[in-house]
Amino acid sequence: MTGKTLRVALMQLSGFPTKREAIANVQNQVRVAVKDKGAQLVILPECWNSTYSAGEFRKNAEQIPNGDTSAALSKIAAELGIYLIGGTFPEEDGGQIYNTCTVWGPKGEFLGKYRKMHLFEMDIPGKCTFSEPSTLTPGNQFLTFMVGDLRIGIGICYDQRFAEFAAINRQLGVDFLVFPSAFDTYTGPMHFELIARARALDNSMFVALCSPARDTTQDYVAYGYSTICDPWGRVLCCAQEKPTMLVQDLDLNMLNEIKTQIPVLRQKRLDMYELNVKK
Length: 279
Description:
- This protein is an alpha/beta fold and about 280 residues long.
- The chain is built from 6 helices and 14 strands.
- A 6-stranded mixed sheet has the order 5-4-3-2-1-14. It has a 6-stranded mixed sheet with strand order 8-9-10-11-12-13, with helices on one face.
- Helix 1 runs parallel beside helix 3.
- It is globular, with a radius of gyration of 18 Å.
């Protein structure tokens, strides 16, 4: 972080036939983002090291933080001295499978993991049919971490549809909410940017959605269009369908300015309603 600016890189990655190739690609792309673009925080997409398929989740699952993918993410974060939000990959724990995002610090330290809380289920005949609950177990814990004075929260794809999820992260002090997100191509054009802008505006926070690149050869086709929004709900940058590296400086001064100019966070009628995290 430089002064009150944080340079962020969103990696909209294409898939690879093997996990080893996907990991090698990530390491190479992260090096470019940091050495050539100066990124201080790098964000990877949802399900970047395996096929996004209910039938493939268990086959590709690893333990965290002891698996090969975790080791590779830790190594590249330490090599480059950056914070790394490791997208998601299938996690196995006690016979259960989770869609999990890991976070790594600049010494390669494991800062925590977030397991997707809201599991995606959709059945629009001829458009998209998918059921994560048929294979995955939902998570039950929030994750936040600090980069300097900035608190960052993690969600995964379908979580963004639930306004309460973002509001709880806001109550936890989050000013930047990150969602690795493989949205589908039917609802993506209607809702992807709209949801990002709404969550940012409602909570006076930065929001990033990081998608895989579109691959029409897969059974499940990701929308693409990775996006970063500012606390005013404005789109700062947006990809299209192809593999893309988005690099954006976040002006963190904006956070306090907006909270002062339109103080919605302190003007909530907590005497009338409240939202609580259940332990």
